[in-house]
Description:
- The protein is of the alpha+beta class.
- The protein has a domain at about 115-340.
- Helix content is about 30%, strand content about 15%.
- The protein has 15 helices and 27 strands.
- Strands 14-15-18-22-21 form a five-stranded mixed beta sheet. Strands 16-17-23-19-20 form a five-stranded antiparallel beta sheet, with no helix packed on it.
- Helix 11 (about 365-380) packs parallel to helix 15.
- The relative contact order is 0.14.
Amino acid sequence: MKYPIRYIRQDIPAFETPAYQGQTYEDWVPDTLDIQERAALAVNGLTGPTDPEKDHMLYFGVDFRTQPPSMRHRGSDICQTKFEESLPLMRIASGASLNSHIDPVWMGNALHQIGPDGLFYWPWFPWVKTPDWGLGYGLAADKAAGEQPAAGEYAIPLFCGRRIGAMTLYALRDPAGPWHSEIQKMVSGLESILIDKGDYGYFPQGEFYPNRPRVKDAAMPVGIWSSLVGWTIQGLAQYHRASGYQPAIDLASKLARYLAYHGRYYGPNGEFLPNYAGEDGGRVPGREGFQGFDPGTVEWKQYTHFQHHMVPLLGTLDHALAVADRDLVEFVRLAFEWARTKGNILVGYFPENIDRVNELETSEICEVAGMIGLALKLSAAGVGDYWDDADRWIRNQFAEGQLLQADWVYRVAAGAIAGSRARLTPSMIDPLLQTCDHVPERNIGAFAGWPAANDWYIGHGSGIMHCCTGNGTRALYYIWEHMLSYERGTLSVNLLLNRPSPWADVHSHIPYTGQVDVRLKQPCSLRVRIPEWTQPADVRCTVNGAPHQPAWDGRYALIGSAEAGAGPLAPGTIVKLTFPIAERTVEVDIEKQHYSLVLRGNEVVNIDPPGRFCPLYQRGHYRQSDSRWRKMTRFVSSEDMVW
């Protein structure tokens, strides 16, 4: 039965949902990590855990501990805005059309939720007692009352930023639609709640309600509360990059300077500071029964949350690169370098909370995805060379953190983990809040909320919190986008992973053997980056089977370039690069546990001790020297989104 949702706006302008155009063909591909395949699975992981009776609203929480596994609505369902951004990106990368009926529903909802003042208002649902990330400081009146407003909708600026990002993609794909005018309305709405301090500005803490007076001044949120503008900065920067709209970048500039220099969440050298959120910890009198996220608790005050430092850095970097703000770029680089020291950079294991002494910290995929995004964006901008960091983290903790199979989830729910199990009978399930309908299968392609170094799930947490899926899927596009780059007739292969493209198809045999094949489709010069575990002197190259001596630019082999003394390569040319690859065993401590890792190149092919419930790195087939092949459907999009 369809649940009646009250939106702040009833009548919306018309829009189109353009088909995803591109070339589709069959090809034999080495059976190695394939980001296009992972993006196609992600389409399922983005659209499956939604509620068809509530306009395909996200079920934020997925619980493997109940029998059968279940999904439940929460205040954090508002993270659906991350899904709305990722879904078009995953379709562009993969061509997957699964559940395409959801796209126009989400696009329509985006318009229904824009209020007359330009803010994006989330409908109030019975299960939301207090909005996650909202404590009432956004109210000009009744500041301490703690009462649910009669209006029935609320806005939180950070999610306005995520929604701007999603709508920017809609505008790029449907340029004749209403998206530009609606986004610009949202920018004006955010400007209306800004506390402007000259060269920087911030939003009052908490949620906002329609038809309420806006405060003219308010205490500056600090600590983890300051981090929330990171989402807003990124959405504004994404829209400015797509449109050149100056008010968006002006607002982003004020927020970025506040975050970096006034928010007390980063030290002078980019180091992450604890969550501590001011003298009162950011708490509101009378809200002791608060049910949302509350960093004002004693427990949260003493933590340093990794992910809530990561997202602001991504947003700030997108902005800083757009306006060539070298100081902010350097701030992000220093913070990234500091963050590298707080995880295991061999596999990309970064803890949810930093430097907790007595407890094992699992690795939210959120922070792994954020570190990959920063490594790729900093490298592509020439700010540093972090390509090998990205390659290691992509191949290991990140790739293993995507849900690829469902059978083990049912075993966990049946009681594989010691302890009590909640048996859910049909009479116990509240259909307003929960579903048990094929939950594991609907989450294939989603990302882990609490993985360990050797196990997808260890009993800590419920299984999936879909903030990780939103951030993980966006990182999949960052990877897809940065694997190759094409500029003025030169194709650069930055990561040796399988990748079809308009310019060439790249086939990577790693880690079976040290080999990458590039089949040219257009005339171009070629630059191929060789990973750090091999040396240029050991690389052998053939062009259409004939030996060829490439020139070198650092770790890039140059073929068919002026530096190599040759002209562009012709379409149909096959370039093969080979280099030694060998197994090595590394003894390492990861988050208070000792492991023995077997690696081929950057890729872990075995871990000891193994995991218990869904063991990671079940990659024995990679330890043979002959590549396995698969016949796959390839999609090359006609759209090239810079994201």
